[in-house]
Amino acid sequence: MKKQSPEVKQRISTFIERGAIANKIKKITNYKCLICEAQGLNPYSFKKPNGMNYVETHHVEPVSTLKEGVLSVSNLITVCANHHRQLHYGDSKLIENTKEIFKFEIDKKIIEIKKKTIIDL
């Protein structure tokens, strides 16, 4: 690979439009990782050059299900990059999803996030 040059290829793809709700939920939750906060840990990640804390938005019910409501605020949480990867690929699962809470099991620990906290802010 040392002497190989990058090759440009064209790709045509289909994707699911998620809209601008992610940026709104980040602002609503004050750019916090809600899982870190629920565990009593520092909920803030590193600061970006613009001074804002870095945080990612996670769709609890995957957008790929194409179910009505998966793009709504009530299906979103903000998480640090580590917890986002853990929710997708780690030892974690959603064990309860009601109008009031999300409850996850992450590494054998129960983490509860109140939706009221998200929606009412």
Account of the 3D structure:
- There is one protein chain.
- This protein is an alpha+beta fold and 121 residues long.
- The chain has one domain (22-119).
- Helices cover 22% and strands 21% of the residues.
- It has helices spanning 21-28, 34-38, 81-89, 115-119; strands at residues 56-59, 76-79, 92-97, 101-106, 109-114.
- It has a three-stranded antiparallel sheet with strand order 3-4-5.
- It is globular.
- The termini are far apart.
- The mean pLDDT is 88.
> How many separate helices?
4
Count of DSSP strands: 5
Overall geometry comes to globular
Structurally, the number of domains stands at 1
- Summed over residues and divided by their number, the pLDDT gives a mean of 88
What value does the Rg take, in angstroms?
A: 17 Å
Provide the spatial order of strands within the biggest beta sheet: 3-4-5
Q: Tell me the distance between the termini.
A: 51 Å
Query: Could you estimate the helical fraction of the residues in percent?
Result: 10-25%
SSE order, one letter for each helix or strand: HHEEHEEEH
Largest pleated sheet: 3 strands, antiparallel
Task: Kindly name the structural category.
Answer: alpha+beta
Strand residues, percent = 15-25%
**Poorly predicted runs:** none
